[in-house]
Design brief:
elongated; four-stranded antiparallel sheet
Amino acid sequence: MKDDARFYIIRRRAVPDVLLGVVRANKYLASGKAKTINEAVEMAGISRSSYYKFKDDIEEFHDSRPGTTLTLSADVNDERGLLAKFLSIISASGANILTIHQSVPADGVAVLSISLQIREDTGSAGEMIRQLEELEGVRRVRVTGRES
């Protein structure tokens, strides 16, 4: 089976330290805290070869830019009121819900797909997703799409 994916969305905890170091080095350079790549990689605690290998391949995912549309997929237990609680968290964040689709539950679990738009007054989308993940009855939440 051929894997044609060019991009992946992964959680920060799954990103190797060397790649996080590349992100830090790029920040040091962009902010002027480091004047050279040598300074930046030293500050970030990575090697120059690691920096050059990955410098164009990793950047932070800024999920809270106004106008961004995120599509979330969640596996949720089939429990009364859970969808209302889920939507309440999204609403409290200030995001605008565009579409909602919930599958018919199978073995007590439904798949929920929600597209939402980040607005000027929306809080951190990362924080919103964390709150959704911590909601009792939510098994997992994934960002399955992003359009700017």
